[in-house]
């Protein structure tokens, strides 16, 4: 990737792609009449607006939360465009949707985080911190794989994964200096080292190492009872730090993705993407290309207005 290129990222949405570049973002969606509708806006990240939020080990958590919000809004809007639906947008609806989202995330996260710890205690592995965290990490890994594999068979999710592949191909073409045509984009891989899927793997791997150390300190040195509840609380408390470290590692992986050692380290995350990305058709590539071009147009407009 050329050093003077702006970093581009994005995500798949319902029948489309959202692309984000420094200074702007855009979302392109294929409507039922087969036409592409694009929404583009100037955008400045919180880490760019506040220098303190851009500090190492803080920017990762801030960026994750901000992207979660933008991603959710993009998916909601893309559904409206793709299926011609509208939402009332009342305060009651907004509060209800927020409660549903929070509860869903809390329940899912609780199962993903607590169940491996509980099973670990049933097997009486908690006294050996290394073995214990290897087991918990492997259990979480298998839960994640099972979940992704399960939803990948759903027709709509499969199309989402195809748009995910189109997003990656388009970013690769841009990073290599190619004109964003369907022919140029088609030849690139659907696997990208900066994908959020790789972030999840790096977080899981980092957690195994980190928790093995911190659990030893908390439960052995500080003589705190080593039970499932205390271990769960301990893991939750330190999760933002692990996520922040993982974010920095992911950024380094993206920067030095051609390095042979980095390729080996990120390879497991790339393997994840054999599930979360699928080969897109040309119509999907066209949508992704339109989104990236429009994101840069929004960025340029922001610069002109400054």
From TrEMBL:
<feature type="transmembrane region" description="Helical">
    <location>
        <begin position="130"/>
        <end position="154"/>
    </location>
</feature>
<feature type="transmembrane region" description="Helical">
    <location>
        <begin position="196"/>
        <end position="220"/>
    </location>
</feature>
<protein>
    <submittedName>
        <fullName>DUF1385 domain-containing protein</fullName>
    </submittedName>
</protein>
<keyword id="KW-0812">Transmembrane</keyword>
<dbReference type="Pfam" id="PF07136">
    <property type="entry name" value="DUF1385"/>
</dbReference>
<dbReference type="InterPro" id="IPR010787">
    <property type="entry name" value="DUF1385"/>
</dbReference>
<keyword id="KW-0472">Membrane</keyword>
<feature type="transmembrane region" description="Helical">
    <location>
        <begin position="95"/>
        <end position="118"/>
    </location>
</feature>
<feature type="transmembrane region" description="Helical">
    <location>
        <begin position="232"/>
        <end position="253"/>
    </location>
</feature>
<keyword id="KW-1133">Transmembrane helix</keyword>
């Amino acid at each position: 990737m050329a050093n003077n290129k702006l970093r581009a990222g994005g995500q798949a949405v319902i029948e489309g792609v959202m692309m984000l570049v420094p200074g702007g973002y855009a979302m392109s969606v294929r409507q039922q009449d087969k036409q592409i509708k694009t929404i583009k806006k100037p955008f400045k990240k919180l880490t760019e607006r506040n220098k303190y939020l851009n500090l190492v080990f803080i920017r990762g958590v801030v960026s994750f939360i901000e992207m979660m919000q933008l991603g959710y809004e993009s998916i909601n809007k893309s559904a409206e465009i793709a299926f011609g639906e509208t939402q009332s947008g009342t305060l009651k609806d907004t509060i209800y949707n927020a409660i549903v989202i929070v509860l869903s995330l809390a329940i899912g996260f609780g199962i993903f985080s607590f169940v491996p710890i509980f099973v670990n205690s049933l097997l009486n592995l908690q006294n050996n911190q290394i073995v214990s965290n290897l087991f918990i990490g492997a259990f979480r890994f298998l839960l994640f794989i099972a979940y992704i594999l399960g939803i990948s068979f759903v027709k709509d999710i499969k199309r989402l994964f195809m748009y995910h592949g189109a997003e990656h191909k388009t970013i690769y073409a841009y990073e290599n200096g190619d004109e964003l045509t369907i022919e140029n984009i088609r030849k690139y891989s659907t696997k990208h080292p900066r994908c959020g899927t790789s972030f999840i793997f790096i977080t899981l791997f980092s957690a195994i190492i980190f928790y093995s150390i911190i659990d030893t300190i908390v439960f052995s040195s500080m003589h705190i009872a080593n039970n499932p509840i205390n271990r769960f609380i301990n893991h939750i408390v330190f999760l933002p730090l692990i996520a922040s470290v993982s974010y920095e590692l992911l950024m380094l992986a993206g920067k030095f993705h051609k390095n042979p050692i980095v390729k080996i380290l990120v390879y497991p995350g790339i393997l994840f993407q054999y599930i979360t990305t699928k080969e897109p058709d040309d119509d999907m590539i066209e949508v992704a290309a339109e989104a990236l071009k429009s994101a840069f147009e929004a960025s340029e407009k922001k610069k002109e207005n400054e």
